[in-house]
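Blinded run. Sample ID left blank on purpose so nobody reads anything into the name before looking at the predicted structure. Input follows.
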Amino acid sequence: MNKSVISVFAVVCSLGLNAQTIGNSPYSSYGIGDTKYDSSIETTSMAGISAAYVWDFNNQFNFQNPAANQNLEITSIRIQATNENQYLKSDYNNAKIGKHSSYLSGIFFALPLSKKVKFGFGYQPYSSKDYNLTKTSTLPDGTLGTHNFYGEGSLNIIQAAFGYSISPEFSVGLNTNFHFGKLSDTEEISYENTTLINNHEFTNKVTSFNFTLGTVYQKKLKVNKKLTFGATYTFGNTADFKTKYTNSTYYLSSGNKMNESILNSTSKNSKNAIPQEFTLGAGYGHDGKWFVSSQLNYKKGVTTSLASNEPFEVQDSYRVAVGGWYLPNYNNFRNYFSRVTYRYGAFYEKGNLKINGHDINKYGIALGASFPFQKSNANRLSTLDLGLQLGQRGTLKDNLVRENFINFTIGINFANKWFEKQLYD
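Blinded prediction complete.
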């Protein structure tokens, strides 16, 4: 499948897609699909800031850097959902189209095991495929052929995270990351004046373990100020990617396959698809008042053979972001909005795809807010969380696709001392 050629048709032929699936980008036709930055609503609302993000209060767990959880003192259960809206444009036939989807984007559970040891368990989507592309070709005798390409499926990630405070200033952590899911890519070929369809289908079943090491150093300064440094490294890939290729013929009757004949069927295993990643961040803030941070993410490119007999190369990529939060006065119970935490951020991502000589880059801004429940206080803080991301991806050059996006996330964090021992006189 020559996707560097057919990608220009993504906008034109996406009108018939079902919108209630994970992800909308036409660039999901490459590799393992459109990769999400696995993050909670708080870090998403700060443009992905996580490596040096140690929340000042006791009700949040940082899954991106498991070392940054020394302040967690109560049990936290969080559920979040995301609504994605892509507005796609191509100079090819001046095509424009909008795509929309909503899905569960995270379930998280965290609690302190002791004063020094913190534990978190979470689920999120990791990547997704959702595309439907069409191109035409002409045989030497002038016969017109139609090639339909479509893909679907998703990879998910389950994380078990541990953080340990070596000292009040220095902490370390470890995530175990389990990826699983199913991805499929299909090419249907038909020619005019014939009813028989030739189908090439690649089905990939994925299971993979890797690990994330994290570390945080936080130095308390004078007048309630603090300086924080954090880093993570994701490594290891005990992957099992089982790819089954099927070449078949059939004809369609009322949308159903009839008289299917298998011409060829093969299977193979591959190892590479989940990349190694390194993050480095630094932040500065005022206890319980405000925090600002910058971060660099670097992902190592991989070469896979998913969805094709030919290897597909994902290039090295990086992402830079700045962001933070501001809390006017968490003790002001006369003014509710003084107890709301406001988040902000901006990012630029040099993408891992290069098509027709153009890097598929991405940039945007993020905003968010955490609204405390009416009876919550700084010691037991349950919140309703909202997040917004706006940005752009891709280019119009060489008839490629430019994608403007507006993504909304909503989450609820229930936080309390649910597992503490009760004492009676």
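Unblinding after everyone has recorded impressions. Residues 1-20 have pLDDT under 50 and may be disordered.
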